[in-house]
Amino acid sequence: MSKPTRDHYTRTAIALHWLIALLLLGQFAFGLMLDDIPRGTPDRGLYVNLHKSSGIVIGLLILLRIAWRLKHTPPPLPAGMPAWQRTAARLSHVALYLCMLALPLSGYLASNFSRHGIKFFNIVRLPPWGPDDKTLYAFFNGTHHVAALLLAGFVGLHVLAVAKHMLIDRDGLLWRMWPRRSGRGIHPHPELPVESR
Fold first, then answer.
1. Closest by alpha carbon to 149, among 183, 108, 103?
2. β-sheet bridge partners, residue 120
3. Comparing 185 with 1, which gets the higher pLDDT?
4. What are the Cα distances from residue 129, in Å, to 11, 50, 74?
5. Which of 52, 56, 65, 53 is nearest to 21 (CA)?
6. Cα 152 from Cα 149, distance rounded (Å)
7. Which of 66, 126, 130, 144 is deepest in the core (most CB within 10 A)?
8. pLDDT tens digits for range 136-194
9. Residue 176 near residue 192, CB atoms below 8 Å
10. What is the CATH number of domain 11-74+82-177?
């Protein structure tokens, strides 16, 4: 099992971070593509169920990521970072996690207040456990769309913050979440310690 060092996340945290980031990006594109598929057609049902199924898998990975984060203290932020930036970083991470939880959860709940339910990867039918209720479906589906927009906004802020730290502050913040080759740490900033193995 990998252990966190003073300046680096664990290998598991890094793998989950980038895997979830790529999957969410693909899921966003997939969700936008669904708008182009006419309602009431067989193709729409096929692709909607793929979207729902991949959302469930991503949701489980997000839960795993949160569980790992709770049990493994992340490396500290750069020593020279102002207090307000530290607070902003913590709050933005909380907001990211809340949006990442709300997105698959709201989609799952919406599916269970629709008569269609979920056909997991178009193979296993998961019948809805809730009634076919258009009001509840609309509420959770609307929540799903709002959560997607909020998550996109917070991800954008996250990327801008990382770019600021790498290009302006030059404190090597990104490298805490970047994979390293065995035996050689990536430490482009002279003040960052080199890990000993």
1. 103
2. 124
3. 1
4. 38, 19, 38
5. 65
6. 5
7. 144
8. 999 999 999 999 999 999 999 999 999 998 999 888 888 999 987 654 444 444 444 43
9. no
10. 1.20.950
Phi and psi torsions of 118, nearest 5°: -135, 135
Prediction pTM value: 0.85
Report the pLDDT value the prediction gives residue 173, as an integer from 0 to 100.
86
**What spatial distance separates the first Cα and last Cα of the chain, rounded to whole Å?**
14
CA-CA distance, 98 to 103, in Å (whole number)? Answer: 9
> What's the one-letter identity of residue 48?
V
Strand partners, 124: 120
Residue whose structure tokens are 């966003």: 28
Separation CA 166–CA 78 (nearest Å): 12
Q: What is the pLDDT of residue 188?
A: 45
| 194 close to 4: Cβ distance less than 8 angstroms | no
Pairing of strands 118-120, 124-126: antiparallel
* Cross-strand partners of 126: 118
Q: Give the C-alpha separation, 145 to 106, whole Å.
A: 9
| Residue 188 structure tokens | 């482009």
Helix (H, G, I), strand (E, B), or coil: what is residue 19?
Answer: helix
Question: How far is Cα 162 from Cα 88, in angstroms, rounded to an integer?
Answer: 13
What lies within 8 Å, CB to CB, of 14 at 6+ separation is: 177, 178, 179
Closest CA to 161 of 58, 64, 89, 67: 89
> Six-digit token pair at 50?
């793929």
